[in-house]
Amino acid sequence: MINDGSVPRLFGTNGVRGVVNSPDMDPRFALRLGLSIGSLMKGTVLVGTDARTSNEMLKSACASGIMASGCNVVDCGTVPTPTLQYAVKTRGVAGGVMITASHNPPEFNGIKCIDPDGTEMSRANEESIERRFHTEDFALASWANIGTMVADTTVIDGYIEGIVSLVDVDAIRRADLRIALDCGNGAGSMASPRLLERLGVRYVTLNANPDGAFPGHNSEPVPENSKDLIDLVRSGGFDFGVVQDGDADRAIFVDDTGTYQYGDRSLALGAYFACRENPGGLVVTTVGSSRCVEDAVAANGGRIMYTKVGSPVVARAMIENDSVFGGEENGGLIFPEFQFCRDAGMAVAKMIEIVAKHGRMSTLLAGIPSYSQYKAKTRCPEEKKRHVMEQLAADAKGGRVDTTDGVKVFFDDGWVLVRPSGTEPLFRVFTEAKDPAKAKRMAEEYIDKVKALVNGS
Ligand code: MG
Q1: What is the 3-state secondary structure (H, E, C) of the chain?
Q2: Which CATH class for the 158-366 domain?
């Protein structure tokens, strides 16, 4: 069932999101979406939530719709999104539904669907759900075939054991590491402390109680929300700190000196060791990722592939191209030996293993080149966007150009990416260079080029 464009879209890059009890995220919406989801999945559906105040309400409504379509529901409770994904994959069920708004403010919530292989739902399946939602094409079961709902609180056990089986626990225990862990009052609270316990590291937690009011800090792991963690690491004696977002699929690291490390740095570090352990391996990331990832891959003879922005796109490209590692620049790291989704639990375990085997995080990161980035935007009418992009690509003739998502033009020590906004009449211009002044200058140069093309010169 293909959406021909006549059906309004519900799902964004990472599920449906909305402000709780607005028309697009209230119990009626969740019930109707649950009916649509169950009508597609036709089997046992695992349901989990992050730590938000509206979770029980939305989960109940959504599960009600899923059961009405004849599917059995397994309520996995509050779990990280990757924990639910791993359970869907390993238990051979029809799919999963995660009630989460990830890193959004507390008044938001969302509903995200998982395909039977544990990956974020394909766009084709989302379109099928959207069509059923809008046309009310629900497969209502007869009274004798209504689904059941049972609770299962064991999925975190399987997730932790799955991670532990893929890292060198002996090396980790010998290293006697000490970690600062900030769960941000999110779903990571349920799994990450237990994981560290199981790995035999010493640790101190911050905000490790699930609380949908997010009393510690908002759930986006940006620098201003990581101050307490940085202070804790700087107090001394830690090998690194880590902060997870609200549903614990993303992890951001603070190195042993207490320096906040942006997601592209940990992505580069993971890529470096993945390519070292898998000679010639392919790393997949989005066109927006820093050049430092490509440098880390090249340093070990690996290959890089760029995709459109969005973790489901990265995950699918990894599956199709037999990739050894991948992820996004926002702390979403994907380890294919475990599963094809962003996973903050696996990211923490792998980073612990890397530090245990190879030394201090700050030293390892110092070996990876640094770049400065600059962001700007400029207006462009919708109807001129295609022309502008074609001209920019043609203009760079002879140089390296990537048109996967917008136009990305590479230079000796950086690049410029001009991407059309999907929702507004404007282009976003991102640049990167070794010298911050050059990054700014390149952005200004491309803003001028876009303006000239828009104005017809
Ligand atoms: Mg998230």
Answers
A1: CCCCCCCCCCCECCEEEEECCCCCCCHHHHHHHHHHHHHHHCCCEEEEECCCCCHHHHHHHHHHHHHHCCCCEEEEEECCHHHHHHHHHHHCCCEEEEECCCCCCCCEEEEEEECCCCCECCHHHHHHHHHHHHHCCCCCCCHHHCCCEEECCCHHHHHHHHHHCCCCHHHHHHHCCEEEEECCCCHHHHCHHHHHHHHCCEEEEECCCCCCCCCCCCCCCCHHHCHHHHHHHHCCCCCEEEEECCCCCCEEEECCCCCEECHHHHHHHHHHHHHHHCCCCEEEEECCCCHHHHHHHHHCCCEEEEECCCHHHHHHHHHHCCCCEEECCCCCEECCCCCCCECHHHHHHHHHHHHHHHCCHHHHHHCCCCCEEEEEEEECCHHHHHHHHHHHHHHCCCCCEECCCCEEEEECCEEEEEEECCCCCEEEEEEEECCHHHHHHHHHHHHHHHHHHHCCC
A2: alpha beta
